Amino acid sequence: MALFFSLLPQTVLVASQSCNVDSFNDVLGISAKVVSAVSVSDGHAYGEGTANLAYPIAPTKLPELCALIVNVSSSDISNYRFGLFLPTQWNSRFLAVGNGAFLGGINWLDMGSGVRYGHAVMSTDTGHNSSAVDLTWALNNQERKKDFGYRAMHGSVELAKKITEAYYGARISYSYYSGASTGGRQGLKEAQISPASFDGLLIGAPAWYTSHLQTWSTKVALYDLPVTDKKHVNPSFFGVLAAEAIRQCDEVDGLKDGIVSHPELCDFTLAPLLCSNSPGTDPSACLTEEQVETVRNVYGDFYAEGKLAFPGMEVGSESQWSFLLGGAAPTAFGDAYIQYFLYDDPTWDWTQWDDGIVWQADEADPGNCTADAYDMAKLKERGGKILMYHGAADALIPPGSSQLFYERVAEVMGGINGLQDWFRYFIVPGLQHVTGTVVDAPWYFAGSGSQGRLGTSTYSTPGFEDSKHDALLALMAWVENGTVVEELIATTWKNQADPSSGVLRQRPLCPYPKRQTYNGSGDPDVAESFFCQ
Ligand SMILES: *[C@@H]1O[C@H](CO)[C@@H](O)[C@H](O)[C@H]1NC(C)=O
Ligand SMILES: *[C@@H]1O[C@H](CO)[C@@H](O)[C@H](O)[C@H]1NC(C)=O
Ligand SMILES: *[C@@H]1O[C@H](CO)[C@@H](O)[C@H](O)[C@H]1NC(C)=O
Ligand SMILES: *[C@@H]1O[C@H](CO)[C@@H](O)[C@H](O)[C@H]1NC(C)=O
Ligand SMILES: *[C@@H]1O[C@H](CO)[C@@H](O)[C@H](O)[C@H]1NC(C)=O
Fold this sequence. Notes:
Belongs to the tannase family. Residues 1-16 form the signal peptide. By secondary structure, this protein is of the alpha/beta class. Helix content is 29%, strand content 18%. A hairpin with a 2-residue loop joins β2 and β3. One 2-acetamido-2-deoxy-beta-D-glucopyranose binds at residues 189, 192-193, 368, 371, 373.
């Protein structure tokens, strides 16, 4: 908060009140330049359209604001840009939002979600211009890797705060962060390298373990490859597997509702799916011994050269398996990382895989992406708070990954109970990667990127704009008022992308290790029928 206020000469504060390029450049050093400043009137849209490959969709019906684009030189061979929304009606808070996957672009849509709260909101393009799966920009460019890893976020936060305080001639009262997937990693990383950047962070399904996660993305696909091998399980079978998981594991949480809410309580067995156990079954609807081994590997934690490298897929996530396991080759998330980030060798291909690659990635950690500085005492000592969440049905980043992060932070910071007063972790039953469900589970609580699933002008949780149903408002109440987040209520609608279709279900999400528990008799679609224990 207010880190740079004292550096700003009074004249800048007065001179910078209008929304034009020249009034901001005095605030910035020589390596940064405002390239665009646009006054957006109330009710209008703002974005870059298709020039922004990563985030072409513009938020609409914005409040009146000043929209800036700033270009920052980070080395002789790299630069990054960030966008900043400065609302006319400012509530004195700052919010940074994150990116997804390897998307290189300013995330205007999530900035739009944030500015509706009245915050000044920033997003960085992380130093490149690309789609989610294009990593060619990183080839032989260690500086761009660093921008992606941490430097673009850190520099953008610092400069955006300076501009914000100069624009309003007032201090920022509180600073927040909201991001999921890569965005979750970006937030944790920034909190690790600069504990004073944020007072509160909302972190979804973080891709924090970059060196392990990306290499595992190749490894997990290889269990099922090549497609000509006897062990190969066709992605069309994943639906059968998902149904079997529901059959065996739905009710262990005390409620038959089609949702595997607590997979950790279920002793899932593949035996009923074995072809040899049901002679005469269509071979595409059962598993051979070799295929059972493949499926077991996918669920299993990955030990590389005898050491835990990455957690496996969770029971209940099968409907999303085809994302990493669907093709004739692993995805770019693994392969392109190894080619363009780790080896700077586009000719590398997955037939050259060996498990030692994980430890090479761990050691090199190109760009210093991995957010594994588990001792976050400085954040805690400042009063900083983290709310982290992860979908139990996520098959892009298994929820075990967040669990591992939480446990490792706990290990160095006084155990799981010792974390409760500053860092809480919520598992979201039935939520896939970041947003969405295929089992009608309540998943919406205004987490990063979720507003965009409902439209381009969504604010908070439609119909429930309060700190019980909106995780960002809950985080603010925790930071500013000390209101501990005992539960968050998740919502889903009859059409999960359309609140006007009416609420289908609401349920509480519980801070780990507490579990969402059905009370045994109430309406399973209302939150009051569940408690955290
Ligand atoms: C990003 O790349 C695309 C395609 O090459 C280009 O059209 C666009 O102008 C670039 N955007 C920025 C912000 O440089
Ligand atoms: C941003 O800065 C880099 C140098 O750091 C420069 O090459 C590039 O043209 C600038 N882009 C814009 C849009 O000003
Ligand atoms: C890499 O990031 C960590 C925080 O995750 C930080 O402690 C460390 O100093 C960084 N290393 C370098 C070389 O920048
Ligand atoms: C803090 O509490 C006050 C009084 O109840 C309330 O008006 C305010 O909205 C709360 N602040 C936050 C961020 O929740
Ligand atoms: C369960 O929750 C419902 C509210 O949905 C409540 O009416 C009922 O009394 C609760 N039952 C028990 C056993 O707590």
